[in-house]
Design a protein that fits this description.
The complex is a heterodimer of chains A (about 250) and B (about 675). Chain A is α/β, with parallel strands linked by helices. Chain A has one domain: Rossmann fold (3-Layer(aba) Sandwich). Chain A has eight helices and ten strands. Chain A is globular. Chain B folds into three domains: about 190 residues, no CATH class; about 270 residues, no CATH class; about 160 residues, no CATH class. In chain B, the strands form two sheets. In chain B, strands 3-4-7-8-6-9-5 form a seven-stranded mixed beta barrel. A four-stranded antiparallel beta sheet of chain B has the order 2-12-1-13. In chain B, a hairpin with a 2-residue loop joins strand 3 and strand 4. Chain B starts with a helix and ends in a 6-residue tail after the last helix. The C terminus of chain B is likely disordered. The chains are: A alpha/beta (about 250), B alpha+beta (about 675). Chains A and B meet through strand 1, helix 2 and helix 3 of A and helix 11, helix 12, helix 20 and helix 21 of B.
Chain lengths: ~250, ~675
C-alpha cells in the first residue's frame, strides 16, 4: 500500500461576490511510496501549491480523495486535524515561515512542545538533528539575525524533528542563492537517505534532480513522470530538462 | 508639486481608512475628554456649585494626566499605523522622491490627522458639554443652578495640544526616515527579543520611581484643608501622579519582559504546551503592548480612584445623614436662661424632646499659618506678600471638651489642646514671643459635629481668664463675634471694649442639641420660632439634606468623567487587540500549519487577555490605594466624615472595573481570534 494516495482530486475556487470560478486542479491522481523522494514540477499557476495544501489537509478538495497510510483525510474530524497534521507531516516553505518572535531553537522545538513532549526529550531530539544540519550554533539567535540558507536549514530541522510520515516542501530553494540552494538540497538528500519520505513542489530543475521521481503537472493534472533510477543528479537534471522541453514547451 | 504631496498623504489615509478612521475617532474622543476637563476647570459658573473650586482643581489635575496619557497613546498607535508605510516611503524614495519630499508628506499626513481629530474632538466636546448641562438640569432639576459655558480657551488648548502631539510624531517619523536607508525600510521589521542589561536597569528605575511617588502621596497630610489643597498638597499629588505614570510605563515596558525572561529560564515550565507559545509571544509582544497596557493601567487607576471616591462620598454622606437623627435640632438661646427656656419648651412639646448635648457657643477666630507654623501676629505685608493663609479656629474650653468627649484634655497653661490635622503643628507664638506648646487631642467626632470643621483649640480654664491673659500680653488676633470683626491690634481702650463684647457674647449664648420625636418635630420647630424670643433653631437633618443635594451636581459630573475614562480604557483595549491581531496573524497561520489547534489558539489568546487584565488592573488598584490620603482629604473638605475603609472601596471598585474590562476583553479577544484565524477561501 502506498504511503500517500491522491485520487481524482479537483479544486475550483470561486470568488465570493462575482461568482467567477477558477479551476486550479482538474483531476489529479498520484501515489508516493514510503521512503520515496518525489518532486512535483510545473509552471507558476499550475496548481502545485494547491495540491500540496490539499494533501496536507490545509485546504479542502472540491472533489476527490487523499489517503495517508490508508486513512482518508476527509474522515479525520475537524478537532483532530491539527494533531494529525502535526504527527504525520513536516513542512518546509519557500519563505521559511519561521516565527520571528521565537528563537531558531524555539522554532524547532515548537512541534515537539505542541505534541506535549517533556523538555528533556525535546532537547534530546533537537540538539542532534540541529548538529547534523549545521545549525547548532545559531539555536539561540532570532530569525532576523541569520542568513536565508540558515533559516531554511532551521525550517528543515523543524519539519524533520517530529519524524513525520511525509515531509512536504513547497519551493524550498525558491528564496535562496545558488550556494545555499546546493547545501539545502544536499541536506534534503541526507534526510531522505535516513528513510524520510519527501514530497517537494518546485519549478527548479536543479531541486527536482535531487528527487528519486519527478511528476509533471500541467493544466491541473499530472501529465507525466520520470524516474531517477541509477542516474546521477547531473544526468537526472538533463533528463528532467529534456522532458520539460518536450512536455511543457521548452520552459525550464 | 505641492498638490502631489497632499494627494499622496491624503490617499495614504484614505486607502487605509479601515485603520485611520478608528484612529481619528479614538484620538478625537481623547480630545473631547480633554476639552471637557479643561472647560470644567476654567468654568466661571463652577463657583456657583458647592465644592466647585475643589472640583475645578481636580479637573485641572485630570486634564494634565489625561494630556500626558493621550500623548503617549497617540504616539503608540501612530507607530502601529505607520509601520506598514515604511515600504511605501522606500519605494517613493527609490523612485526619486527625496527625503525632504517624504518629510513634507509625513508632516502633511500628520497635520491632516491632527486637524481632523481636534476638530471632531472639540465639536464633540462642545456638544457633550451641552448634553451634560441638559442632563444636570433634567436629572437634578432645581437642586442646582448651574449653566455651562463655551470655553474658547479650552478650544485653543485642545487644538494646540493636538498640533504639538502630531508635530512630535512627525519629528520622530522624520528622524527615523533620515536614520535609515531605503533598503532597510523595504525590509520587514526585524523582530525578536532584544536582550540587554538596560531592561533590568529600567525595571529597577521604575520600581524606585514608583516607591518615591507612593512616598510622596503618603506624605500628604491626612487632614486636607483648603489652604494646602490649593497649594502644597495638590502640587505633591500632581508631581506624584506624573511619577506614577512614568513608573507604570517603565514597569510595563521593561519590567514585564524582565520578569517573563526570568520565567523562561525554568525550562520545565517554559517548554509546556500551554506556556510555551503564550510566554514566547508575550515576551515579544510586551515590548509593544506594554504601552497599551500602561495606558489601560493609568485609565483604570483614574476610574478606580474616581469610583472609590464617589462611593466613599455617597456612603459617608449617607452615614452622616443617619448619624444625625432625623429629628435632631440645634437650638441656640440668648442670655442666661437657656436651661429654663428649654425646660419650658420640652414641657410644652409633651416631653418628647430630649437634650442630647449642651455646649457653650464660643466665637471663632482667625489666625495665620505659613510653613507648618501657626502665628497670631502677622503684618499686613506678610499676609499679602509672603503667602500667609488664614485659618479659622473654634475655641472650646476644657470643661465643654470633657462634657462632649468624656475625656479630660489634661492641659495647663501655656499649653493648648488642638484638634486639627497637619500642617499646623509645632509652636504657637504671640507678640512677646512666648512659646505655647500645642498638644494634639484625639480628633473627636462629637466635638467636630458641634464645632464644625474649623481647627479647634481647647483652652485650659475659663474664657475670661484666657482673655485676661492674652489681652494683658498684647495678644493679637482678629476675633469675629456675631459678624463683628475686632482687630485686637488697637488701642488699650478699644481692646477693653473688644474684651467686654467678647465676654458678653460668650456668656450670652448656649447651644443645645435636642432630639425630638419625629412626629413632634414640626410642633417643636413652630413652638420655638413663635414663643421664644432670642432663640434660633435649625434642623441639622434639613441642613445636611440640602448640602448633600447641592453636592449632587459634582457627583454627577464626576460620574460622567469616570464613565469617559472607562470608555477610553475600552477603546484602548479594543485597538490594542485589533492591531496586535493584524500583526500576529501570519505567526498564527504558520503555527496552525505546524499543528497548533484552534483550542490552543483560543487558550493562548485568553491567557494573554487574563495577563493583560490582571497586570494593569492589579497595579491600578495599588496606585489607587496610595491615593487614599488625597482623596479622603478632598471628601473631608466637603465636610463629610469618612468613617469606612477606603481600601475596601478600592477593592470593590477594582472588582467593578475588572468586570467591565473582562466583558470588553472577551469581545476584543474574539475580534483578535477572528483576525488570527483568518477566513478560509472556499468553493
Amino acid at each position: 500500500m502506498p504511503l500517500l494516495e491522491v485520487k481524482n482530486v479537483k479544486k475550483i475556487y470561486s470568488t465570493r461576490f462575482s461568482g467567477n470560478r477558477v479551476t486550479a486542479l482538474t483531476d489529479v491522481n498520484l501515489s508516493v511510496d514510503e521512503g520515496e523522494f518525489v518532486a512535483i514540477m510545473g509552471e507558476s499557476g499550475s496548481g502545485k501549491t494547491t495540491l500540496l495544501n490539499i494533501i496536507a489537509a490545509m485546504d479542502d478538495a472540491t472533489s476527490g480523495e487523499v489517503f495517508l497510510n490508508g486513512t482518508n483525510i476527509k474522515d479525520i474530524k475537524e478537532n483532530k486535524l491539527a494533531e494529525f497534521r502535526r504527527k504525520k507531516f513536516g513542512f518546509v516553505f519557500q519563505e521559511f515561515n519561521l516565527l520571528d518572535t521565537f528563537s531558531i531553537g524555539d522554532n524547532i522545538r515548537l512541534p515537539l512542545v505542541l505534541d506535549d513532549r517533556k523538555s528533556a526529550e525535546i532537547d534530546d531530539k533537537v540538539i542532534p538533528l540541529a548538529s547534523k544540519l549545521g545549525i547548532k550554533e545559531i539555536l539561540d539567535k532570532y530569525p532576523y539575525e541569520v542568513a536565508g540558507g540558515q533559516k531554511q536549514r532551521a525550517a528543515l530541522c523543524r519539519a524533520a524533528v517530529m519524524n513525520p510520515s511525509l515531509l512536504l516542501a513547497d519551493e524550498p530553494t525558491g528564496s535562496l542563492d545558488s550556494k545555499s540552494t546546493g547545501e539545502v538540497l544536499h541536506l534534503f538528500e541526507e534526510i531522505h537517505d535516513d528513510g524520510q519520505t519527501i514530497l517537494m513542489v518546485t519549478h527548479s530543475v536543479k531541486a527536482a534532480s535531487h528527487a528519486s521521481r519527478v511528476l509533471f503537472i500541467k493544466d491541473g493534472a499530472v501529465y507525466h513522470q520520470v524516474y531517477k533510477g541509477d542516474l546521477s543528479n547531473h544526468e537526472f537534471y538533463n533528463k528532467i530538462s529534456d522532458s520539460l522541453q518536450v512536455l511543457l514547451g521548452g520552459s525550464r | 508639486m505641492r498638490n502631489i504631496y497632499f494627494r499622496i498623504a491624503f490617499n495614504a489615509i484614505s486607502k487605509k481608512r479601515i485603520v485611520y478612521i478608528p484612529y481619528i475617532f479614538s484620538t478625537a474622543i481623547m480630545g473631547m475628554v480633554l476639552y471637557l476637563l479643561i472647560s470644567l476647570s476654567r468654568d466661571v459658573h463652577m463657583t456657583d456649585l458647592i465644592g466647585g473650586e475643589v472640583f475645578a482643581v481636580l479637573a485641572k489635575i485630570g486634564a494634565i494626566i489625561f494630556f500626558i496619557l493621550s500623548t503617549i497613546f497617540s504616539i503608540y498607535i501612530s507607530f502601529f499605523i505607520t509601520r506598514g508605510r515604511h515600504k511605501e516611503y522606500a519605494v517613493l524614495n527609490v523612485l526619486g522622491l527625496e527625503k525632504k519630499h517624504l518629510t513634507k508628506i509625513i508632516f502633511i499626513e500628520n497635520m491632516i490627522l491632527s486637524v481632523s481629530s481636534s476638530v471632531i474632538g472639540i465639536i464633540g466636546g462642545i456638544v457633550f458639554y451641552k448634553l451634560i448641562e441638559l442632563a444636570v438640569i433634567k436629572f437634578l432639576g432645581g437642586l442646582i443652578n448651574y449653566e455651562m459655558s463655551f470655553e474658547p480657551m479650552a478650544v485653543a488648548i485642545v487644538f494646540l495640544s493636538y498640533l504639538l502631539v502630531y508635530s512630535v510624531i512627525s519629528v520622530i517619523q522624520v528622524a527615523l526616515l533620515y536614520l535609515s536607508r531605503p533598503v532597510e525600510y523595504m525590509k520587514s521589521a526585524s523582530k525578536g527579543e532584544r536582550k540587554g542589561k538596560l531592561y533590568v536597569l529600567f525595571t529597577l528605575a521604575g520600581i524606585a520611581i514608583l516607591a518615591i511617588a507612593y512616598k510622596i502621596e503618603y506624605s500628604i497630610p491626612p487632614d486636607l484643608r483648603i489652604t494646602n489643597f490649593i497649594g502644597k498638597s495638590t502640587r505633591q499629588f500632581i508631581f506624584s501622579s506624573i511619577l506614577i505614570v512614568a513608573a507604570t510605563f517603565l514597569l510595563f515596558i521593561f519590567g514585564s519582559v524582565t520578569v517573563l525572561s526570568l520565567v523562561r529560564k525554568n525550562k520545565r515550565f517554559f517548554y509546556r504546551k500551554n506556556n510555551f507559545i503564550s510566554l514566547s509571544t508575550l515576551i515579544f509582544r510586551m515590548r509593544r503592548s506594554a504601552i497599551g497596557l500602561g495606558t489601560i493601567c493609568i485609565l483604570s487607576t483614574l476610574a478606580i480612584v474616581l469610583a472609590s471616591a464617589l462611593i466613599s462620598f455617597a456612603v459617608s454622606a449617607d452615614e452622616y445623614l443617619n448619624s444625625i437623627a432625623p429629628e435632631t435640632f440645634i437650638a441656640r438661646f440668648a442670655g442666661f436662661n437657656g436651661d429654663t427656656d428649654l425646660a419650658s419648651i420640652i414641657g410644652a412639646t409633651g416631653g418628647n424632646a430630649k437634650v442630647k448635648r449642651v455646649y457653650e457657643s464660643f466665637p471663632f477666630f482667625m489666625a495665620y499659618t505659613n510653613r507648618d507654623k501657626f502665628y497670631h501676629e502677622v503684618s499686613e505685608t506678610a499676609i499679602t506678600e509672603a503667602g500667609f493663609s488664614a485659618e479659622y479656629f473654634s475655641l472650646i474650653d476644657e470643661v465643654s471638651y470633657t462634657a462632649l468627649t468624656g475625656e479630660d484634655p489634661d492641659i495647663t497653661y501655656p499649653e493648648f489642646g488642638v484638634i486639627m490635622g497637619s500642617p499646623l503643628s509645632g509652636t504657637m507664638k504671640d507678640a512677646s514671643d512666648q512659646t505655647h506648646k500645642l498638644i494634639s487631642l484625639k480628633d473627636s467626632e462629637s466635638v467636630r459635629s458641634v464645632y464644625g470643621y474649623n481647627n479647634i483649640l481647647v483652652f485650659p480654664g475659663d474664657p475670661e481668664a484666657l482673655l485676661n491673659y492674652y489681652l494683658g500680653n498684647d495678644f493679637r488676633f482678629i476675633v469675629n463675634i456675631e459678624q463683628k470683626d475686632y482687630d485686637m491690634r488697637q488701642s488699650p481702650e478699644e481692646l477693653a471694649t473688644a474684651k467686654e463684647d467678647f465676654l458678653n457674647e460668650y456668656y450670652s449664648f448656649r447651644t443645645y442639641v435636642v432630639n425630638v420625636d419625629a412626629s413632634y418635630a414640626e410642633q417643636y420647630y413652630v413652638y420655638i420660632n413663635t414663643n421664644v424670643s432670642g432663640a434660633s433653631i435649625e434642623s441639622a437633618t434639613e441642613d445636611a439634606v440640602n448640602f448633600i443635594s447641592a453636592i449632587k451636581g459634582l457627583f454627577f459630573l464626576c460620574s460622567i468623567i469616570m464613565f469617559l475614562f472607562i470608555i477610553m480604557m475600552v477603546v484602548t483595549l479594543y485597538y490594542k487587540n485589533l492591531f496586535e491581531g493584524i500583526e500576529d496573524a501570519p505567526n498564527y497561520e504558520i503555527m496552525r500549519k505546524l499543528g497548533m489547534d484552534d483550542k490552543l489558539i483560543n487558550r493562548t489568546v485568553y491567557t494573554h487577555m487574563i495577563i493583560s487584565l490582571v497586570l494593569p488592573i492589579a497595579l491600578a488598584a495599588v496606585h489607587a490605594m496610595f491615593s487614599e490620603r488625597y482623596v479622603i482629604g478632598i471628601i473631608r473638605m466637603f465636610e463629610v466624615r469618612v468613617t469606612h475603609s477606603f481600601q475596601w472601596l478600592v477593592i470593590l471598585s477594582t472588582v467593578i472595573v475588572t468586570i467591565i474590562y473582562l466583558f470588553i476583553g472577551i469581545i476584543a479577544s474574539g475580534t483578535y481570534i477572528k483576525i488570527v484565524k483568518g477566513k478560509k477561501q472556499e468553493v
